[in-house]
Design brief:
It comes from Halococcus salifodinae DSM 8989. This protein is of the alpha/beta class. It is built from 16 helices and 13 strands. The longest helix is centred in the last third of the chain and has 17 residues, at 246-262.
Length: 334
């Protein structure tokens, strides 16, 4: 099983045996793992952020660790350090929890900026430096960091450089009433239901093979121009102090290709990019002081950008909009 759409469907079905209503989040995590991305997962307490990360790791067969971020966690607690062994009279390397395929940094904004920065090299270069020695991290490597948007006391806001290294920011929403009822029934039948209830359904080799498939997805020049227009609009918006970086443009490219692949297509369409505007950009934009004081939100700015930047084909006639997408080029349906 190397087809990205089959891998996504298999992972989603397995995770759904425990959690309900997390399809969009599972899609986002699948996109990230197929494109070497990292995910910032935000939500109020009790919406199963950490459980989802553990379920995803278990279903995908990735070796995973969890770091509970607190103010007293040190960089060495994350990356590792050299420990002196009296029995041998030598220093021995003790690897930290970052040496795993999938690392869950729980409540990342409770760690101090110094500890947060210990993840910068790991996220970008996929390596860490301990005592002057540079060590490669396992492949694949993915960081899922959770944070709570309502408890700000005792937290440290992530710096822009670190936020930019997260490919996507996903939001875990509260379940609706129907989902809540299903959840109650499910855990009433099995109070111990958790990550141990599901099995590994994908191998690492299959994930890496699916990555190669995603890399071959076709992106038309018009779609690339649409990405560049979106990024430029963030930099030109008067409410934005610092707009999206080139890394954000690459995130659009990679995630759009993965979304197309898990939806069974070999080419990207504008809707792939449009659906990713919020998760790719919402954590990257820095609003101006006037905008912040004027109660302008990042969501407001993204709404303006989405409405103001027209995707390819939006000015076509209704007949042209029914055209089929052939290898990335619009052609009339015969």
């Amino acid at each position: 099983m190397t087809a990205p759409d089959e891998i996504h469907a298999t992972l989603s079905a397995e995770i759904d045996a425990v959690l309900i209503g997390k399809e969009e989040l599972v899609e986002g995590l699948t996109i990230a793992v197929l494109t070497r991305g990292h995910v910032l997962l935000e939500g109020v307490p009790g919406v199963a952020k950490t459980t989802l990360a553990r379920l995803f790791a278990r279903a995908s067969g990735l070796d995973h660790t969890r770091i509970q971020m607190t103010p007293d966690v040190l960089p060495a607690d994350v990356t590792g350090t050299h420990v002196y062994r009296e029995s041998t009279g030598e220093f021995e390397l003790q690897r930290g929890p970052v040496f795993a395929n999938l690392v869950v940094a729980d409540e990342i904004n409770r760690a101090t900026p110094k500890t947060q920065s210990a993840l910068l090299e790991a996220m970008q270069e996929r390596q860490v430096t301990i005592g002057g020695e540079t060590l490669a991290l396992p492949e694949p490597f993915m960081l899922i960091a959770t944070q709570n948007p309502i408890e700000m006391e005792g937290t440290f806001e992530l710096p822009e450089a670190q936020r930019d290294r997260f490919q996507l920011k996903l939001t875990a929403e509260l379940p609706d009433r129907d989902e809540g009822r299903q959840l109650l029934d499910r855990f009433d039948d099995d109070p111990d239901l958790g990550p141990e209830a599901i099995e590994q359904v994908v191998t690492t080799e299959e994930l890496l093979a699916a990555r190669a498939v995603v890399a071959e997805v076709y992106v038309d020049d018009a779609v690339k121009e649409y990405v560049l227009d979106l990024v430029a609009a963030t930099r030109e918006n008067p409410n934005v102090e610092y707009g999206a970086s080139p890394r954000a443009a690459l995130a659009f490219l990679d995630t759009a290709k993965a979304r197309a692949a898990i939806h069974g297509r070999e080419y990207v369409i504008p809707d792939d990019v449009k659906s990713l505007i919020e998760p790719v950009l919402v954590h990257r934009l820095v609003l101006s002081t006037d905008a912040s004081l004027g109660d302008v939100s990042v969501a407001d700015v993204l709404g303006e950008i989405e409405d103001g930047v027209k995707p390819p084909g939006s000015d076509h006639t209704p007949a042209e909009r029914t055209a089929v997408h052939d290898g990335g080029n619009l052609v009339e349906d015969e």
